[in-house]
């Protein structure tokens, strides 16, 4: 941030007031240089592919309180930085890079959702789901429309709460049954039914069940893509189609966590004499 301040301070009328700096014009080359630098920094923090590899391992090994802090606050600061610095302070460079952000966001949704399905560690699966949901934020920021930006900000807030809550439940379940791998956790709904119930509800919220905040955020992002004046109709259709595929994959990896427990509950009650 200090380097950006020095560069912008010397390129125009000297000021460190953010609003004043946002209303000034800077050389496009200077904007592009700083945009790329901040994009890389925020891409690591958010994270954005291909700079996301640190996140699943961190979530898989860290204590759940650390995971909650990462998912709920720290990662979302990267997305906020994209809005506050890259989009607001460097608008001309953002207009140049926004199509690439849209493409990157669509790829991230598909990649992270499909990768999450193959994770056996519960916390790593939730971590990859967070990476997938970040794709909607990137698309909203890259849409260059007020509605898309509103959807991205709502997704930041929504998934900040949902992701932190999922990691909390994953940690509390580990404290009780000392298991994190899904193939070993079968039947957790019977010994810890309250945690399982809350986990099921939050999984529905994470997969954007209609009526929940995730659904509203993603719907607004879709409207932001459609109403954007920057892109051609075919581009909008293609991005929407790819994003919709990611939304189909999301229930698969979310519900696959809780479905085995539902089947085990049915088997448990069917084999008890009082149920007959």
From TrEMBL:
Record's keyword annotation contains Transmembrane helix: yes
Predominant location category: membrane
Membrane-spanning intervals of the chain: 26-44, 64-83, 95-114, 126-145, 151-174, 195-225, 237-258
Domain of life per record: Eukaryota
Membrane topology listed for this record: Multi-pass membrane protein
Molecular-function annotations in GO: NADH dehydrogenase (ubiquinone) activity; NADH dehydrogenase activity; ubiquinone binding
InterPro entries: NADH_Q_OxRdtase_chainM/4, NADH_UbQ_OxRdtase, ND/Mrp_TM
Location(s) in or outside the cell: Membrane
Gene Ontology cellular component list: chloroplast; membrane
Annotated ranges, domain NADH:quinone oxidoreductase/Mrp antiporter transmembrane: 16-238
Any GO BP annotation: ATP synthesis coupled electron transport
Keywords for the protein's UniProt record, in alphabetical order: Membrane, NAD, Translocase, Transmembrane, Transmembrane helix
Record family assignment: Belongs to the complex I subunit 4 family.
Protein name: NAD(P)H-quinone oxidoreductase chain 4, chloroplastic
Upper lineage: Eukaryota, Viridiplantae, Streptophyta, Embryophyta, Tracheophyta
């Amino acid at each position: 941030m200090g380097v950006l301040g020095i560069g912008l301070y010397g390129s125009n009328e000297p000021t460190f007031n953010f609003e004043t700096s946002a209303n000034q014009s800077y050389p496009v080359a200077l904007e592009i240089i700083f945009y790329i630098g901040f994009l890389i920094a925020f891409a690591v923090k958010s994270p954005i592919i291909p700079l996301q590899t640190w996140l699943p391992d961190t979530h898989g090994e860290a204590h759940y309180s650390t995971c909650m802090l990462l998912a709920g606050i720290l990662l979302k600061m990267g997305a906020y930085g994209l809005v506050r610095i890259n989009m607001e302070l460097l608008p001309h460079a953002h207009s140049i890079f926004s199509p690439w952000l849209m493409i990157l966001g669509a790829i991230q949704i598909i990649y992270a959702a499909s990768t999450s399905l193959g994770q056996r560690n519960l916390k790593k699966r939730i971590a990859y789901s967070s990476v997938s949901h970040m794709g909607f934020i990137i698309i909203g920021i890259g849409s260059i429309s007020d509605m898309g930006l509103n959807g991205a900000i709502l997704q930041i807030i929504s998934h900040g709460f949902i992701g932190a809550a999922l990691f909390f439940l994953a940690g509390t379940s580990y404290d009780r049954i000392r298991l994190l791998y899904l193939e070993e956790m079968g039947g957790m709904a019977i010994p810890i039914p309250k945690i399982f119930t809350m986990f099921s509800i939050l999984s529905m919220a994470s997969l954007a069940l209609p009526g929940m905040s995730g659904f509203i955020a993603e719907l607004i992002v879709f409207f932001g893509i459609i109403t954007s004046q920057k892109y051609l109709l075919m581009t909008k259709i293609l991005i929407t189609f790819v994003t919709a595929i990611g939304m189909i994959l999301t229930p698969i990896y979310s519900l696959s966590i809780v479905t085995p427990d539902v089947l085990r509950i049915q088997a448990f009650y069917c084999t008890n004499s009082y149920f007959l």
